[in-house]
């Protein structure tokens, strides 16, 4: 699993938890399993997220690479899968 992303999410969870102060290693370790679960939960985007990604790609493709083929869902899943390695 991508330690950088897990660490980032774990720190965000600590920031959101008003009962924890600071980034002690024990706090980060405690939140790592929750961070992994949160990242996994985002692997399958909502229809709205897919549409937004498709729209962003369509805008990009029309400006930069009109012949490119891009699937927002495949890219999203690939990025989440990479974060989970």
List keywords for this structure.
71% helix, 85 residues, 2 domains
Architecture overview:
The chain has 85 residues and is mostly helical. It contains four helices and no strands. It has two domains: 41 residues, no CATH class; 41 residues. 71% of the residues lie in helices and 0% in strands. α1 crosses α2. It is elongated, with a radius of gyration of 17 Å. It starts with a helix and ends with a helix. The mean pLDDT is 78.
The parts where pLDDT drops under 50 for at least 5 residues are none
Number of alpha- plus pi-helical segments:
4
Write down the overall mean pLDDT.
78
Shape: elongated
The major β-sheet equals: none
Write down how many β-strands occur, each being a DSSP E stretch of 2 or more residues.
0
- Helix % is over 70%
Classify the beta-strand content into a percent band. Answer: under 5%
CA radius of gyration is: 17 Å
Based on helices, strands and strand pairing, what is the structural class?
mainly alpha
Counting structural domains, the number is: 2
Distance between the termini: 3 Å
Could you give the topology of this structure?
Blueprint: H1 3-16, H2 25-41, H3 47-63, H4 72-83
Helix pairs in contact: 1-2
Quick overview of this protein structure:
α1 (3-16) crosses α2. This protein folds into two domains: 1-41, no CATH class; 45-85. The chain contains four helices and no strands.
């Amino acid at each position: 699993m991508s330690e950088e992303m897990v660490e980032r999410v774990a720190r965000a969870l600590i920031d959101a938890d008003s009962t924890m102060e600071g980034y002690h290693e024990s706090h980060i370790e405690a939140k790592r399993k929750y961070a992994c679960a949160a990242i996994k939960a985002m692997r399958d985007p909502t229809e709205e997220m897919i549409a937004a990604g498709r729209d962003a790609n369509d805008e990009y493709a029309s400006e930069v690479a009109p012949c490119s083929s891009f699937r927002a869902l495949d890219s999203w899943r690939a990025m989440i899968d990479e974060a989970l390695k």
